[in-house]
Amino acid sequence: MFLNTLTPKFYVALTGTSSLISGLILIGRGSRGASPTPLGARGVHGTPLLTAWDPGACRWGGVVLVSYGCIGCVEGLSAGLSSHKLVLAVEIFEWWYFRKYGTSFIEQVSVSHLRPLLGGVDSSAPTNTTTSNGEADSSRQSVSECKVWRNPLNLFRGAEYNRYTWVTGREPLTYYDMNLSAQDHQTFFTCDTDHLRPADAIMQKAWRERNPQARISAAHEALELEDCATAFILLAEEESTTIMEAERLFKQALKAGESCYRRSHQLQHHSSQYEAQHRRDTNVLVYIKRRLAMCSRKLGRTREAAKMMRDLMKEFPLLSMFNIHENLLESLLELQNYADVQAVLAKYDGNACVSALLKARAVSDKFSPEAASRRGLSTAEMNAVEAIHRAVEFNPHVPKYLLEMKSLILPPEHILKRGDSEAIAYAFFHLQHWKRVEGALNLLHCTWEGTFRMIPYPLEKGHLFYPYPICTETADRELLPIFHEVSVYPKKELPFFILFTAGLCSFTAMLALLTHQFPELMGVFAKAFLSTLFAPLNFIMEKVESLLPSSLWHQLTRI
């Protein structure tokens, strides 16, 4: 946790410590006469060096402070080894790295590589240690800052999630995800007047139960009293093992739900309690009809499912919290009714990935990277590429799942906008639609990485959307199962040049330190190393001397 919250004070302390070490080394080597370059001094050619708090040099003085701390340490250790040139090289490298990657190289290495060595805990791995209350609260607070949404295409817990568990032995849903679902059920399916009806009172307690068997038993108990719509819903979601069985239970729930809805609709204006009951009955009815439409879609009756979703959206146009248009879009794509898909996108907040698919469909069958590089992109191709860039900027995790560079898992019941969970949910249901459009995945493969060149610092500034939120990784780890490797963005890997330069500087500093501590022994090692290094060259020279005439060799030597 400490290395995650480095402040400029830390860099000031690091600078002072490095300077102290450099001073002690220089005192020990006073006979050599080497001295470190102070802050604000001038370089080897008389040019002023970067000052620690120069606003033109960087936005955060800590970066340059680390540079000077390392410079002082390197200068002290490499006294007598062209210290001024080494200082200038390290300064230029640190400045270049900050300009290119937006962070200090020392900070990058300390947070990315030293944190695990100093006891940092990987949040993706399970741990048996007890987390302190402060850390738990801060983790929950970061999750709450990222609003999660109910997955409009969520699977059936009994007929799909539980079957996956029976086959693989893995739990596809996390406790956090199921807890959010329990809160949703209590919000949608309960109200203050439940105590007036015994069956509803039982179901109000059932939705709060953590044990699935206890919830199922409570639902059966409620059905023994009367036909309760929410009891049928619970059994259809959690007890049924097939989609056909779930559809049968939802049809029974529909009959009971419509009866309650008609009765509460007539009494809604009598009091606030009746109004709350009517609102609850409306949520129950919409939920049942939406799940019946999803059952029809899963059983292959796609046209029937699309019609049911259209009717539901017309009957309840104000209930946008269920995002029924997402279900309708998926069904229309399965029917390849692209004109209606475009109309739905224009009416509602358009899905960027679906829009990209429609734009790509117009040009993907004839798209060729070689031909495009020779003649340039046409207007339609430019529109398709821009749509792909827009979709990738909104959610950069989607392309790897569509291109099958990462393995898919069952989507969670809740998703985080622009997060890995949303990418999994989209790819799980829409990958088949991308494969059906000829050349669409090829166009995506050729163009999606170009998005990141337009947003080099996505956490600070976006291109078409707001900056990418920094809390997605924490929320996704709570939503996704532990066996899934969460996709993290942005995640920059250090180039080979930077790693090579860092290794070379460290090796040079170590050699200087060893030479200072053990000069005679290092001299012996240096002579042995040089003799071994030049042995092949000496052997070749001896062979050349033996083959060439002495007069010719004498003339070549003089030249």
UniProtKB/TrEMBL annotation:
Q: Which residues form a coiled coil?
A: none
Topology relative to the membrane, per the entry?
A: Multi-pass membrane protein
Question: Transmembrane: present as a keyword of the record?
Answer: yes
Q: Which InterPro entries match?
A: ST7 (IPR007311)
Q: Which UniProt keywords apply?
A: Membrane, Transmembrane, Transmembrane helix
CDD domains xref list = ST7
In terms of domain of life, where is this protein from?
Eukaryota
Location of this chain's protein in the cell: Membrane
Primary localization class, coarse: membrane
The residues forming the signal peptide are none
- Record keyword Membrane present: yes
GO CC annotation: what is one?
membrane
PANTHER family reported in the protein's UniProt record: SUPPRESSION OF TUMORIGENICITY 7, SUPPRESSOR OF TUMORIGENICITY 7 PROTEIN HOMOLOG
Family listed: Belongs to the ST7 family.
**UniProt name for this protein:** Suppression of tumorigenicity 7
| Organism this protein belongs to | Gadus morhua (Atlantic cod)
